[in-house]
């Protein structure tokens, strides 16, 4: 604390991102990045932007990328909002679409940025316990609220909620915005974007950081009714009119234009997720069913913290959360077959 700090900063409890190690030769399975690189066409598109046009500001509306995303999901560009990573999209959602004075509902085991945004904007967050099997029960979201946000699949559990249950939640909250954070949906889930034309209170956020291997480019987007998108644009233009730079706009667009690469990466991750799940079960882990690019698993006898520390000594990083109910769990990102083999061998030595 310093005398120069605003009182607002004194109160902040910031998000702590997973470790991004400085050394390269680690098996990094801690922050749910895609083990396969971005499409070569993405790299080519970014290289194509490296010229004197960088002196000019990018398109503040990202029109061409919004059109591409709209075509991909069969919506209109007026239903698409772009942000610098979905974290920024979510920040604008918390500011612009949740009602103050009423609690915003989210699962108690979920993405830890949600309570951080509540703190930043002085919104009351109300964690709703997940069930004994770590599932989201739609019945629990039928209570007065200022908005709802659910990741689907949930993080860090990987558990997935079918679209029928999401419709239940949308129908029981017609006057509140329901946000489905689909950071991990491409690894086996169905997107709720299919529902946006039927539910004006639905907003779906997605990222290019996971299935499209572009965590380093920082591109996220949201799809919903044009009225919701207009609110997000007002917030954006009160904060940073140019959230996506020229390289990000071009790279993101190329990513949507290479469906073959996208499908190949998703199928590779899904196949390895199934193989790793079986291997972990063989090593006495209980593994929650996952539709994400990670698994959430606990050993039947050994402590989660000890296993994470033991793996770290071998140069393998997984995520361990020191939080109630999940201290014994490890969240393990699905790596390449070689990385997953290294993890399995590492576990065998502990
Ligand atoms: N939502 C969830 C559930 C996540 O796990 C993440 C990644 N940590 C994000 C959103 C944000 O992703 P990004 O800002 O890279 O788009």
UniProtKB/TrEMBL annotation:
GO terms for molecular function: histidinol-phosphate transaminase activity; pyridoxal phosphate binding. Its cofactor is pyridoxal 5'-phosphate. It is an enzyme of class 2 (transferase). It catalyses: L-histidinol phosphate + 2-oxoglutarate = 3-(imidazol-4-yl)-2-oxopropyl phosphate + L-glutamate. Belongs to the class-II pyridoxal-phosphate-dependent aminotransferase family. Histidinol-phosphate aminotransferase subfamily. Pathway: Amino-acid biosynthesis; L-histidine biosynthesis; L-histidine from 5-phospho-alpha-D-ribose 1-diphosphate: step 7/9. It comes from the Bacteria. Homodimer. The modification N6-(pyridoxal phosphate)lysine is found at residue 210. This is Histidinol-phosphate aminotransferase. One of its GO terms (biological process) is L-histidine biosynthetic process.
